[in-house]
Design goal:
CATH class: Alpha Beta
Strand order of the largest sheet: 3-2-4-1-5-6
Oligomer: single chain
Helix content: 40-55%
CATH superfamily: P-loop containing nucleotide triphosphate hydrolases
Distance between the termini: 54 Å
Strand content: 5-15%
Order of helices and strands: EHEHEHEHEHEHHHH
């Protein structure tokens, strides 16, 4: 099971939205997926209650139980796990970071978000876990995304080649218990999520699509002549 922690010590960066959309992308790629919601607001868990489908599974938990919850998820067949963390909680974020194979750090192209990213980077460094910054909620036009990219690289963080753009599909889909992949599967937002998921898979050495196992039927035995 591959585990991805979505970390940001600043609120409002879109951690939950990213976690939910990547989880549905993982399910679509053939990976049974679980989301562990460590945020006391339990936004991911509330989203799952308004959802018609049973997957991805969302578990509301506390960081003190993280190791046990991860083990249980793996025992029950989960192949992909996303940890949605709370802002302003360094100890919980550190536990999530240490449990993960990769950290994704969403960051809006705004000055306060860019300044706060250094705290999250410090947690990733302390956990000794690979981290990738993701520019999130970027305006569809203008230089802000490129300017943010330059700033993030200046902090010594690796940056995802995929930029997640601010689109209404993200808002409307979550309201109905969906993600952009289900709400508007051929839209630009869905394409960005698919590309980010593929990039995430590359980072953790996971195929972008899981080959389905096919049952091999036994050949009938030849009858012996009397």
């Amino acid at each position: 099971m591959k585990t991805i922690a979505i970390l940001s010590q600043k609120g409002g960066t879109g951690k939950t939205t990213l976690a939910l959309n990547l989880a549905v992308a993982a399910e679509a790629a053939g990976y049974p997926t679980v989301i562990i919601d460590l945020d006391p607001q339990a936004s991911a868990k509330e989203w799952s209650k308004s959802r018609e489908r049973d997957t991805p599974v969302v578990i509301s938990s506390h960081a003190s139980q993280l190791e046990e919850v991860l083990a249980t998820a793996k025992e029950n067949g989960a192949a992909f796990c996303l940890i949605d963390t709370a802002p302003h909680s360094e100890q919980d974020a550190l536990k999530a970071a240490r449990a993960a194979d990769l950290i994704l750090i969403p960051c809006r192209p705004a000055i306060l978000d860019l300044r706060a990213i250094t705290v999250t980077k410090a947690l990733a460094d302390l956990a000794n876990t690979p981290a990738l910054a993701v520019i999130n909620s970027a305006p569809p036009r203008g230089p802000l995304a490129e300017e943010a990219s330059t700033a993030i690289r200046g902090y010594g963080l690796d940056l995802a080649a995929v930029v997640i753009t601010q689109r209404m599909a993200f808002v409307h889909s979550l309201t109905g218990g969906q993600t952009v992949l289900e709400f508007e599967p051929d839209g630009k937002a869905a394409d960005e999520i698919r590309r980010l998921f593929k990039l995430t898979c590359t980072q953790v050495n996971l195929p972008a699509f899981r080959a389905r196992k096919t049952e091999t039927s036994k050949k009938p035995e030849k009858r012996r002549s009397a």
